UniProtKB/TrEMBL annotation:
Keywords: Coiled coil, Decarboxylase, Glycoprotein, Golgi apparatus, Lyase, Membrane, NAD, Signal-anchor, Transmembrane, Transmembrane helix. It comes from Drosophila mojavensis. It catalyses: UDP-alpha-D-glucuronate + H(+) = UDP-alpha-D-xylose + CO2. The chain holds residues 90 to 432 of 447 of the full protein. Its cofactor is NAD(+). This is UDP-glucuronic acid decarboxylase 1. GO terms for molecular function: NAD+ binding; UDP-glucuronate decarboxylase activity. One of its GO terms (biological process) is UDP-D-xylose biosynthetic process. The gene is Dmoj\GI16768.
């Protein structure tokens, strides 16, 4: 029987999403570090569909093979299990450097590793870019602004970060990552692009990463209490993942070298956000305030004047439709894990 199954598998061609044909002059070899993660896997999809060759490097700390499994075996796709803290020697034209845990519980889980990934990992990526003369885009974050004293945050704001607080491993790691990028640009003529990404959500985000979008949706779907940390007056601005991916690709293609904010400027208090999700999911959850988080930034909203002017980019997906797609993803994931437990 095993023999029969194997021969059946071998004779059934795999179905892949349709990719465009690009001739060799326009087709690039693109490395995505952290490409098995939430944002990275959506970037993989867009670049594959455009017809490029995509190489994902990931250590699967927070990423999953399942996020990219629909490309496994495709001739334009390669998945390498590798930790970017160690050197990497491959030949590529462009690098999107996304490898780093991104949610507070993930990056606080092993702060030393988070710092190594964002310093030694970024040095390896920049060393690679230097050797092969590749253009490199660094995924930075709005956290470089810390708990901001300027609102909304333009790229010219230097930030307000506690260097020894619980978020420092990530915030300062990303700040060094930016510093390294401009040092390599100046000294070694590496072409760098720096995206300062604001809170992003969408399908394939981690169910249990402790972030607000996943927590609130899961709590609402399970009819559990929706937990607002603190008084709920703190604000965030949420961008849908397809808008971010468009922005990353536009930034890579542009000749603009200074940091660019990529985020949705529609600002929400976390208290309001809890009610929006409760309403969209339906159900019986109550919204409750619990203990505040240490060093929680109180206001966050991107000033995207620069991205509009330099990249002709702005977010398109309204919060409600992005959340509905995300809720539907979480609903399916919950059903899937229930089935898994039953069997
Ligand atoms: P994610 O955790 O889903 O993806 C990160 C990926 O990097 C994972 O696949 C993980 O396994 C991989 N990784 C981590 N350490 C690694 C290492 N040492 N070597 C190789 N791979 C490693 O997170 P995400 O939300 O997709 O974030 C992607 C990037 O965008 C991160 O750099 C993050 O800092 C940045 N960012 C994300 C957001 C957001 O809201 N999602 C906001 C600001 C910045
Ligand atoms: N590096 C890498 N892949 C390459 C080239 C370099 O991983 O293709 C690493 C290299 O091991 C080094 C880092 O990138 O640790 C920085 O490289 P750079 O050339 O700037 O520094 P050097 O090798 O001179 O210390
Ligand atoms: N938050 C909350 N309840 C939760 C998770 C998060 O009230 O269950 C709040 C958190 O205190 C912060 C905001 O939601 O003010 C966004 O938190 P998240 O961890 O998603 O991202 P951050 O922007 O802080 O990195």
């Amino acid at each position: 029987l095993e023999e029969q199954v194997r021969s059946l598998q071998a004779s059934t061609p795999r179905k892949y999403p349709k990719v465009k044909y690009l001739n060799y002059k326009n087709r690039k070899r693109i490395l995505i570090t952290g490409g098995a993660g939430f944002v990275g896997s959506h970037l993989v999809d867009d670049l594959m569909i455009q017809g490029h060759e995509v190489i994902v490097v990931d250590n699967f700390f927070t990423g999953r093979k399942r996020n990219v499994e629909h490309w496994l075996g495709h001739e334009n796709f390669e998945l390498i299990h590798h930790d970017i803290v160690n050197p990497l020697f491959i030949e590529i034209d462009e690098i999107y450097h996304l490898a780093s845990p991104a949610s507070p519980p993930h990056y606080m889980y092993n702060p030393v590793k988070t710092i190594k990934t964002n310093t030694m990992g970024t040095i390896n990526v920049l060393g690679l870019a230097k050797r092969v003369m590749a253009k490199v885009l660094i995924a930075s974050t709005s956290e470089v602004y810390g708990d901001p004293t300027v609102h909304p945050q333009p790229e010219t704001y230097w930030g307000h970060v506690n260097p020894i607080g619980p978020r420092a491993c990530y915030d300062e790691g990303k700040r060094v990552s930016e510093t390294l990028s401009y040092a390599y640009a100046k000294q070694e003529k590496v072409q760098v692009r720096v995206a300062r990404i604001f809170n992003t959500y969408g399908p394939r985000m981690h169910m249990n990463d402790g972030r607000v979008v996943s927590n609130f949706i899961l709590q609402a779907l399970r009819n559990e209490t929706i937990t607002v940390y603190g008084n709920g007056k703190q604000t965030r601005s949420f961008q849908y993942v397809s808008d971010l991916v468009d922005g990353l690709i536009a930034l890579m293609a542009s000749n603009y070298t200074q940091p660019v904010n990529l985020g949705n400027p529609v600002e929400q208090t976390i208290g309001e956000f809890a009610n929006i999700i409760k309403h969209l999911v339906g159900g019986q959850s109550e919204v409750k305030q619990i203990k505040a988080m240490e060093d929680d930034p109180q206001r966050r909203k991107p000033d995207i004047t620069r991205a509009k002017k330099r990249l002709n980019w702005e977010p398109k997906v309204p919060l409600e439709s992005g959340l509905l797609q995300t809720i539907s993803y979480f609903r399916n994931e919950l059903a899937r894990s229930d089935r898994f437990q039953e069997s």
